[in-house]
Amino acid sequence: MKIFENLIYAVVILFCSTTVTSFELFSTLGVGLSVGGAVLYAGFDKIRCPFVECCDDKWIPLNFNRLETSLRDELFGQHLTQKIVVAALRGHFREVANPKKALALSFHGYPGSGKTFVSQFIKDNIYKLGSKSKFAHFFAGRSDFAIAEKTDIYKINLMDWIRGNVTQCPMSLFVFDEVDKMPSGVLDAIKPFLDYHEEINGVDYRKAVFIFLSNTGSSLIVQRLLDLWQKGIKREDIKLRDFEDLIRQGAFNEKGGFHQSDTIESDLIDHYIPFLPLEESHVRQCIKAEFRRQNMLSPTEEHVRLPNHRSGLYISHCQEKTGMSKISLMALEEVGDNYRV
Q1: DSSP, res 193
Q2: Which strand (E) or helix (H) includes residue 328?
Q3: Cβ 331 vs Cβ 314: under 8 Å
Q4: Closest C-alpha to 187, from 272, 244, 119, 251
Q5: Is the model's pLDDT at 305 over the cut of 80?
Q6: Overall average pLDDT of the 69-94 stretch
Q7: Vertex 125 angle, CA 263 and 46, to 5°
Q8: So what's the pLDDT on residue 47?
Q9: pLDDT range class, residue 15, cuts 50, 70, 90
Q10: Do 117 and 84 contact (CB within 8 A), yes or no?
Q11: Nearest-angstrom CA–CA distance, 225 and 247
Q12: Contact 225, 192 (CB under 8 A)
């Protein structure tokens, strides 16, 4: 009898810990099974949750103090990101019992400016398992939405995926990388989930977080930064309002997942956050931090020698490569009225 009970426990734990990947599972038969499963879930919740990831405080600690420290110590030259990201997340989850809508953040800047870096920190500090959490979901525009002719199929699948996973855990995180590489119209599918609805077909999406990473608006960000410099405004005095409308227009008009998007037109993105090009001092900090992460000796002047150019701005990406520090630097050079990487 004991063996049979243990087998039942194992089956129920396996059933309850399975990640929902498609709302197609909820067929007429599936609804009946899910009701029964919910009853079993309630009874075995205390058994499985100490060992299997659950949608609760133990597995979703929301460690924003650590996130703030990580961004301060590891992210350089991005004072707007450090301030806005932590404040937006804290505000959203402070009202998690009854937020008005899902939180939507859109990160914009050249490749290597830190967008993916920051999204990783967010996952690591919201979820105990970080990127390995079954409640943290990642989409890459170039690979997950590669064929423009399949846009309608992508939209249906995306809606099903989000619906199913938010049903399992309302505090789910969805990160969309390479938004500028997505076919136009794909992200219109998620507009209802970002809107001010208490629920849609019985599912409440208001506790979820959506983060979009894009290169759109990058040249506009650089031009605006240089314009502000020429007016004598210090970098640390630059405000988010100096960029938000500019980025919104760029995301709406440039090719990509948000091109002519209902999501932008309906003003459902809460914050458009610019990732600014770096100055030499920021690149040096980045290189030194990378050496520290890899427990290497302090870098010499040879390691931090940078190319000379007129703008004084860089795109810097510090990453690990076979145990060595690989620093990719690309100078922003002025070409007439345009700027290129």
Answers
A1: H
A2: strand 324-331
A3: yes
A4: 251
A5: no
A6: 91
A7: 100
A8: 80
A9: very low
A10: no
A11: 12
A12: no
Residue 299 tokens read as: 């870098």
Per residue in 18-56, pLDDT tens?
444 443 333 444 444 444 555 555 556 678 888 899 999
Q: Quickly count: other Cβ atoms within 10 Å of residue 27's Cβ.
A: 11
**CA-CA distance, 165 to 25, in Å (whole number)?**
11
Between CA 175 and CA 293 the distance in angstroms is 25
Distance CA 90, CA 326 (A): 34
**What mean pLDDT is predicted for residues 140-151?**
94
- Which two tokens mark 323? 């145990």
Q: How many CB atoms lie within 10 A of CB 67?
A: 21
Does pLDDT of 64 surpass 90?
yes
| Token representation of residue 228 | 């502000």
Compute the C-alpha angle 235/315/226, nearest 5°. Answer: 40
Element (H, E) at 32: helix 28-48
* Contact (Cβ atoms closer than 8 angstroms) between residue 71 and residue 81: yes
The DSSP secondary structure of 197-257, one letter per residue, reads -S-BTTB--TT-EEEEEE-TTHHHHHHHHHHHHHTT--GGG--GGGTHHHHHHHHHHSSST
Q: How many residues does the chain have?
A: 341
Distance CA 207, CA 10 (A): 30
Query: With contact defined as beta carbons under 8 Å apart, do 194 and 101 qualify?
Result: yes
Strand pairing report for 333-335 and 338-340: antiparallel
* Burial class of residue 97 in the structure, from the number of CB atoms within 10 Å of its CB (0-12 exposed, 13-18 middle, 19+ buried): exposed
The letter for the amino acid at 9 is: Y
Q: What is the mean pLDDT of residues 205-234?
A: 92
Tokens in use for 308?
């000379």
Q: Which two tokens stand for residue 100?
A: 């008005």
Distances, alpha carbon 42 to alpha carbons 16, 35, 37, 53, 205, in Å: 10, 11, 9, 15, 22
Angle at alpha carbon of residue 179, lines to 176 and 183, rounded to 5° = 120
